[in-house]
Design goal:
- There is one protein chain.
- By secondary structure, the protein is an alpha+beta fold.
- It folds into 3 domains: 40-138, Beta-Lactamase (2-Layer Sandwich); 160-228, no CATH class; 235-386, Heat Shock Protein 90.
- It is built from 9 helices and 12 strands.
- It has helices at 2-38, 58-64, 68-71, 85-98, 140-195, 199-228, 239-251, 273-290, 354-364, and strands at residues 43-47, 53-56, 100-108, 114-126, 129-138, 235-237, 256-261, 269-271, 295-306, 317-326, 368-372, 379-386.
- Strands 2-1-5-4-3 form a 5-stranded antiparallel sheet, sandwiched between helices. The protein has a 5-stranded mixed sheet with strand order 7-9-10-12-11, with helices on one face. It has a two-stranded antiparallel ribbon with strand order 6-8.
- Helix 5 runs antiparallel to helix 6, helix 7 packs parallel to helix 8 (273-290) and helix 8 (273-290) packs antiparallel against helix 9.
- The longest helix is centred in the middle third of the chain and has 56 residues, at 140-195.
- It binds adenosine-5'-triphosphate and magnesium ion.
- The site of magnesium ion has 5 residues, from helix 8.
Length: 398
């Protein structure tokens, strides 16, 4: 009996000790987990399936700035910068649906600071309820590094452009020199020919002088338009006469045939005719150079009413739309983003100022220019210029 009792006693004490032991172990485990969680370097969070915050680490409180009482009442998206909420919402959905997710988003702290983070999520079942457990890591340094790299890249691009400008200015000075030599050389020649009474020779050398001087004038005026970015002197003009004249002049003596489609009721525009003349001459000249064997150049003018914002913000209204279509060599897709850049040219004797000028002139008139060049189908430039219904103050005589 005694023995039995003893045995029972012993058994009872044995189980009491092991109970205490496992209780101790549990307490230790909990302490360890708490310590582990609170010392995690990033932010730690555990949300239940109702998106109620259940556990978090001290760092979470420090970074976010809210008290524990405030935190448990807040939804996770309230702690994210509004623009980044969609992406985080998608991450939460993905975690519950597929088990894990990782997004980059900016945390919005109580003081209004926005800190970039990588936020991870994993789904865990606790008491048969799915929870989202995750950690966030501050990536401010990385983002700063990327911005720094971008800044450096922009600076390098700027330097490259300045270098190009230097080369270009040297080239222009050289060209001007050549043109001036042609002018002065031909004038000296003209003097000699005059003394010899050679009128035919004299006329040839004067023509040469004239050509060189014209080229120098054109180059100077292109550069001035670009450098000064002169404000247009606006008056109401008849665009039909201006477009026809400048295009025909630029195509003079070439094999390019021009087809105009211009309605009789074309609305007048308020424009600087000198500057617009440059636009249409440049576009026609480019078309001419793109079709050395000749071809057709189409110029279509239309009155356009833009009623919605589909064409871009603030673009509602009446416009003169001019479509200039050539069937020339076209522009490779990868060069299209560069053609309006000043000094970009693929031509041996091009300055790359034609389209840069067109772009800035049209912009200063409140319009815009677009280009399309599907491979093998030539090039189409489309210009929109604000139209006016006022009387034409100056009609051109054809
Ligand atoms: N109609 C076109 N067809 C094919 N390529 C074109 C056409 N228009 C422009 N380009 C391309 O765009 C580049 C830039 O044109 P832009 O008129 O600005 O300069 P450029 O004609 O080379 O020189 P510049 O006009 O200063 O004498 C051209 O060098 C050419 O590669
Ligand atoms: Mg050109």
């Amino acid at each position: 009996m005694n023995l039995r009792r003893k045995t029972i006693f012993r058994k009872a004490t044995g189980s009491g000790r092991s109970f205490r032991k496992s209780e101790e172990k549990l307490r230790w485990e909990k302490k360890f987990t708490d310590k582990f969680i609170s010392s995690l370097p990033g932010v730690f969070y555990l949300y239940d399936d109702q998106l109620k915050l259940r556990r978090w680490n001290r760092n979470f409180e420090i970074v976010i700035g809210y008290s524990p009482e405030e935190l448990v009442k807040m939804q996770p998206l309230e702690l994210i910068v509004p623009e980044d909420r969609d992406i985080v919402e998608e991450g939460i959905r993905e975690t519950f649906a597929r088990g894990r997710s990782m997004v980059e988003a900016r945390i919005l702290t109580k003081s209004g600071a926005m800190i970039p983070y990588i936020l991870t999520g994993g789904r865990v079942e606790l008491d048969r309820i799915p929870h989202l457990v995750g950690m966030g890591v501050d990536i401010t340094e990385r983002v700063r590094g990327e911005e720094g790299r971008l800044k450096l890249e922009r600076r390098a691009q700027h330097t490259r452009r300045l270098e190009n400008l230097g080369v270009l200015v040297g080239g222009i000075a050289h060209d001007f020199n050549n043109l001036l030599s042609a002018v002065t050389g031909n004038i000296s020649l003209a003097r000699i020919l005059l003394e010899q009474n050679d009128t035919a020779g004299l006329s040839r050398s004067l023509e040469e002088t004239d050509r060189a001087a014209m080229r120098a004038t054109k180059l100077a005026s292109q550069l001035l338009t670009y450098a000064r970015g002169g404000a247009p002197v606006l008056k109401i003009i008849d665009s039909r006469g201006l477009i026809e004249e400048s295009v025909k002049f630029a195509l003079n003596g070439s094999n390019v045939r021009v087809e105009f489609e211009i309605p009789d009721d074309l609305l007048p525009i308020r424009a600087d005719d000198g500057q617009l003349n440059q636009v249409f001459s440049n576009l026609a000249l480019n078309a001419r150079q793109a079709m050395p064997e000749g071809g057709t150049f189409q110029v279509i003018c239309e009155n356009i009413l833009i009623e919605d914002e589909a064409a871009g913000p603030g673009r509602r209204g009446r416009y003169l739309r001019v479509t200039l279509r050539d069937k020339g060599c076209g522009i490779p897709p990868k060069l299209i983003p560069r053609i309006f850049e000043p000094f970009f040219s693929t031509k041996d004797n091009g300055y790359g100022l034609g389209l840069a000028n067109c772009h800035s002139i049209i912009k200063r008139h409140g319009g815009w220019i677009e280009v399309e060049s599907p491979p093998g189908q030539g090039t189409t430039f489309t210009i929109h210029l604000p139209a006016t219904e006022d009387e034409i103050s100056e009609r051109r005589i054809p």
